[in-house]
Amino acid sequence: MKRRSIVASTIAAALLPRRAPAQQVAPAIGWLHPGQLPGSAGRSDGFLAGLASQGFVPGDNVAIDYRWARGNYEQLPLLAAELVARKLRLIASGPLNSTLAARGATTTIPIVFSIGVDPVAYGLVASLSKPGGNITGIAELGSELGPKRLQLLHELLPTAAKVAVLFNPSNQNFKSNLESLQAAASSLGIELLPISAANDAEIESAFTSSSMGKSDALYVGDDPYFSTLGDKLAALSTRYRVCAIYYDRGFAALGGIISYGPKVSSMYAKAGEYAGLILKAAKPSDLPVQQPTTFELVINMKTAKALGLTIPPSILARADEVIE
What we know:
Elements: H1 2-15, E1 28-33, H2 41-53, E2 63-68, H3 76-85, E3 90-93, H4 96-105, E4 111-115, E5 135-139, H5 142-156, E6 162-167, H6 174-188, E7 191-196, H7 200-206, H8 210-214, E8 217-220, H9 224-227, H10 230-239, E9 244-246, H11 249-253, E10 258-262, H12 264-279, E11 295-300, H13 301-306, H14 313-316, E12 321-323
Helix pairs in contact: 2-12, 3-4, 5-6
């Protein structure tokens, strides 16, 4: 009797639905950026491509928690604190402001940055080759590219004696970038006319300001908020017939005359690769800070013709892309 009872119990247990094995929780990455998705798609897409190269696909084996400040830089510390509270495996930060906010929120969660300044100068890493601590990433030394853009603008308009510089005062690296521009301007015999703009209304008024009226051309400073307004800035430049140089291909694609800077998607793809390596247990302190290696000079001939500008052959010969 006991034997029949044991057999029956065994059969009954075998017929019960089996419990699925516990699902493995995917590692989570926090994304912290001062801009917003429109205008920043190349950055986020590049990052995802870099992650994929290391075998991580969102929705499959990794989760990403996005935080966009939408141009409100004062929100970055709060957004960083929210991500840290989630106890994520890693935080991917955009330019300088968001990286400083992330660093202020945690000294233990790994941070992978994509910035346009020297990270050593801002105390983010001990050195480029040996970052130390919990931070590493990709750094475009923006203070070096600024003078190159100004030189290009000088080649395009050799007679331009005054150049307006549009910058966002909320961006913490604008002072150092402006200083490097001032040095280059002096050697070229150019007077810079700085114009600050931190919101839509101020950008509109910048194009009707006395400084813009006195200038012969416009230099648009590197800023993530400006990146979200590429179509607006290009339209304003065309409306007021201002020859402007930009730092990102996206501006030229939307109607800006000329742009020069690193290929943003490639830069963020390298950050994505680093994020994947860290998810595989690499330490940020062991990953040297990389610098972008792919740069692109883009010219919009359609806009140039609309403004009656002739692009010198010396610039056309160096262009990586000409938009007709």
